[in-house]
C-alpha cells in the first residue's frame, strides 16, 4: 500500500489518529441517549428487566418452559370453547413455569427443598414428563411412611386355594403385633417397627405388653411417692402444710433448716414463738418429721406390733397410721422419761407424724453425740455412772427399755448425757424386751471399756445391775438362753391371764407393770 492509499483511508478512521481511539486517557466519544422520566417509571420496563434477570439466572428452566405457542393452523378455531381451552392451557403452562422458577430460587443448593407441586395446574394429558419417569413428589404416596398391615376380613382369611392366608399366619400376626405396639404408653419407646417390617411373635409381644404395663404402674407409683412422701432433707406437701400452720399460729417463729437425718426421720431446727396458757414454748425447738416412706419401717414393726400399749391399734393394712403411731409412741416415751427426771428433749406438741421438742444445743448448733466428743477420763467416768443410773431409772421407774441405746443416741450437753431417739423403746414385758436390754448393755459396756473406764461392767453384769435379775451363767450363750426362757414364761402368762404381770424373779425392786 502506498502513501496515497493510507491518506485516502485516514478520513474513514475518524477525525483523530487511530491510537487516540484506543488510549484510555483519551476523551470518550459517547453519545447520550435521552429518555423521559415516564419511560423509566413504567411497569412494563420493570417487568422486562426482571424477566431478563431471571432468564440470565435460570436459562435452562426458562428454555424448558418456553414452548411453541399454540396456533390455529391445524386446529379448528371456529368454536369459542376450543379457543378458551387453548388459552387456559397456555396460561397454566406459564403459571407452572413461574412456580418452577420460584422453587429453584427458594431451594437453591439446600439439601432440604420445598415443592409447589400441589399448586400446579398442568393437565395430566399434557404433562411434559415421560410416563416411565415418576417423581415421588408428584404422587401422594410417601415411600418413607410405612404401610400399616392390612386387616383380615371378618371371615378370617383372604385368598383362595393354595394362596389362602388365615388370620393365624405367622407373618400377618407378626406385623399386627408390631402395629399394636403403638398403643403402648408414651413413656415406653417402641421405635419404628413398622418401617423396618418387624414381625413380632405372640410370645414376644405379650412379654413386651406386660413389661409396658409394669413400667406404667411403676412410674405412677414413683410419681405418687414423690408427691406424698418425705424424702431425704425434704418434706411432702402435707407435711409442709403442717409446718406452715405451726408458723402461722405463732407457735414457731421460723424454721431455719435441717440439722440431722436418720433412717426413719428428719430433724429441723426452729425458733419458738409465743407461749400459750397451757404450753411453754422453748426458745429453740427441734422438729422431728418421721419419713412417710415405708421402706425403713418394714423391718421395724416388731417394736410396735408386740407393744401392749399399741397392739390393739396395730394393723399392717394401714401403714401410714403405723408411722403416726410411731411418732405417738416417742411422745409417750419422752413424757415418761421427763416425769422421771431423765435428761431428754421436752415434748411441745405432736401433729400427725410431726413431733416438736425442745432443742438440745445452742444457737442452731446441736449438741455433739457421745461418739463424736472427746472427753477427759473424769468426764468419761462421770458419763458412765450417769448412763448406768439412767438405764436403771428407765427400766424401774419408766418401765421402759431403750432398745437402741448406743453412743449414737446419747448427746453430751452442759456436762451431762442426754438420751434421744426413744421411738423404738418398749416395755420389759415385750416378747423381746429383755433381748433389747441385753443388746443395749453390750453397746454401752463395749463403748466405755474402749474409752478407758476401768469401772465399766461387762454386758452380763450390767444387765443384772439394770434389770435387778440374778442370772448366773458362765458364758453369753447360756445367759441369752435364760433370757429367752424368761421371756417365754412371761409371754405364756400374758396369753393365759390376759394381763401384763411380771413373773421375773428379782433380788431388788420388781419393775412396775400396769394392769
Which key features would you list for this structure?
515 residues; alpha+beta; Phosphorylase Kinase, domain 1; Transferase(Phosphotransferase), domain 1; 5-stranded antiparallel beta sheet; two-stranded antiparallel ribbon; 10% strand; elongated; disordered C terminus
Structural notes for this entry:
Interacts with CASP10. Interacts with IRF3; RIOK3 probably mediates the interaction of TBK1 with IRF3. Associated with 40S pre-ribosomal particles. Keywords: Antiviral defense, ATP-binding, Cytoplasm, Immunity, Innate immunity, Kinase, Magnesium, Metal-binding, Nucleotide-binding, Phosphoprotein, Ribosome biogenesis, Serine/threonine-protein kinase, Transferase. Its EC number is 2.7.11.1. Its cofactor is Mg(2+). Residues 137-148 have a biased composition (Basic and acidic residues). By secondary structure, the protein is α+β, with helices and mostly antiparallel strands. It is elongated, with a radius of gyration of 49 Å. It has helices at residues 3-13, 18-22, 37-40, 43-57, 59-65, 80-107, 170-180, 202-228, 237-248, 302-305, 319-340, 377-396, 433-450, 459-467, 476-497; strands at 157-158, 165-166, 252-261, 265-272, 284-290, 347-351, 354-358, 361-362, 365-366, 410-413, 416-419. The chain is 42% helix and 10% strand. Among the domains are: 157-226, no CATH class; 233-366, Phosphorylase Kinase, domain 1; 368-496, Transferase(Phosphotransferase) domain 1 (Transferase(Phosphotransferase), domain 1), CATH 1.10.510. Helix 4 (43-57) packs across helix 5 and helix 12 (377-396) crosses helix 14. It contains 15 helices and eleven strands. A five-stranded antiparallel β-sheet has the order 3-4-5-7-6, with helices on both faces. Strands 1-2 form a two-stranded antiparallel ribbon. The chain has a two-stranded antiparallel sheet with strand order 8-9. The model is unreliable at 1-14, 61-69, 124-139 and 499-515 (pLDDT under 50).
Amino acid at each position: 500500500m502506498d502513501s496515497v492509499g493510507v491518506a485516502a483511508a485516514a478520513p474513514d478512521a475518524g477525525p483523530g489518529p487511530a491510537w487516540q481511539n484506543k488510549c484510555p486517557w483519551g476523551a470518550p466519544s459517547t453519545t447520550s441517549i435521552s429518555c423521559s422520566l415516564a419511560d423509566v417509571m413504567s411497569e412494563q420496563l420493570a417487568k422486562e428487566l426482571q424477566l431478563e434477570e431471571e432468564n440470565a439466572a435460570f436459562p435452562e428452566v426458562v428454555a424448558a418452559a418456553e414452548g411453541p405457542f399454540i396456533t390455529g393452523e391445524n386446529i379448528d378455531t371456529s368454536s369459542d370453547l376450543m379457543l378458551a381451552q387453548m388459552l387456559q392451557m397456555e396460561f397454566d403452562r406459564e403459571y407452572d413455569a413461574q412456580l418452577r422458577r420460584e422453587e429453584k430460587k427458594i431451594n437453591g443448593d439446600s439439601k432440604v427443598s420445598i415443592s409447589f407441586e400441589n399448586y400446579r395446574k398442568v393437565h395430566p394429558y399434557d404433562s411434559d414428563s415421560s410416563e416411565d419417569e415418576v417423581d415421588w413428589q408428584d404422587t401422594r404416596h410417601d415411600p418413607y411412611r410405612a404401610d400399616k398391615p392390612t386387616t383380615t376380613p371378618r371371615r378370617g382369611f383372604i385368598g383362595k386355594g393354595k394362596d389362602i392366608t388365615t388370620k393365624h399366619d405367622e407373618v400377618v400376626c407378626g406385623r399386627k403385633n408390631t402395629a399394636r405396639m403403638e398403643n403402648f404408653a408414651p413413656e415406653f419407646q417402641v421405635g419404628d417397627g413398622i418401617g423396618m417390617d418387624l414381625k413380632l411373635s405372640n410370645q414376644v409381644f405379650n412379654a413386651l405388653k406386660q413389661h409396658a404395663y409394669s413400667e406404667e404402674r411403676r412410674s405412677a407409683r414413683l410419681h405418687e411417692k414423690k408427691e406424698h412422701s418425705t424424702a431425704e432433707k425434704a418434706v411432702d406437701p402435707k407435711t409442709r402444710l403442717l409446718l406452715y400452720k405451726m408458723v402461722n399460729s405463732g407457735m414457731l417463729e421460723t424454721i431455719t433448716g435441717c440439722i440431722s437425718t436418720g433412717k426413719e426421720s428428719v430433724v429441723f431446727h426452729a425458733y419458738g414463738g409465743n407461749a400459750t396458757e397451757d404450753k411453754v414454748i422453748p426458745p429453740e425447738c427441734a422438729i422431728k418429721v418421721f419419713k412417710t416412706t415405708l421402706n425403713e419401717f418394714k423391718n421395724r414393726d416388731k417394736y410396735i406390733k408386740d407393744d401392749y400399749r399399741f397392739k390393739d391399734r396395730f394393723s399392717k393394712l394401714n401403714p401410714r397410721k403405723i408411722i403416726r403411731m410411731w411418732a405417738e409412741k416417742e411422745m409417750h416415751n419422752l413424757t415418761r422419761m421427763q416425769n422421771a427426771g431423765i435428761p431428754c428433749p421436752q415434748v411441745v406438741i405432736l401433729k400427725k407424724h410431726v413431733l416438736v421438742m425442745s432443742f438440745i444445743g445452742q444457737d442452731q448448733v446441736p449438741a455433739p453425740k457421745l461418739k463424736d466428743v472427746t472427753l477427759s477420763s473424769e468426764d468419761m467416768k462421770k458419763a458412765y455412772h450417769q448412763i448406768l443410773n439412767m438405764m436403771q431409772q428407765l427400766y424401774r421407774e419408766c418401765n421402759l427399755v431403750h432398745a437402741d441405746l448406743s453412743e449414737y443416741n446419747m448427746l453430751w450437753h452442759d456436762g451431762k448425757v442426754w438420751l434421744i431417739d426413744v421411738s423404738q423403746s418398749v416395755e420389759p414385758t415385750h416378747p423381746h424386751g429383755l433381748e433389747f436390754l441385753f443388746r443395749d448393755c453390750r453397746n454401752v459396756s463395749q463403748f466405755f471399756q474402749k474409752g478407758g473406764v476401768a469401772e465399766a461392767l461387762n454386758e452380763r453384769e450390767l444387765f443384772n445391775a439394770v434389770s435387778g435379775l440374778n442370772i448366773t451363767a458362765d458364758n453369753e450363750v447360756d445367759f441369752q438362753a435364760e433370757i429367752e426362757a424368761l421371756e417365754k414364761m412371761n409371754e405364756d402368762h400374758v396369753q393365759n391371764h390376759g394381763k401384763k404381770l411380771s413373773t421375773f424373779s428379782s433380788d431388788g425392786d420388781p419393775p412396775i407393770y400396769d394392769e
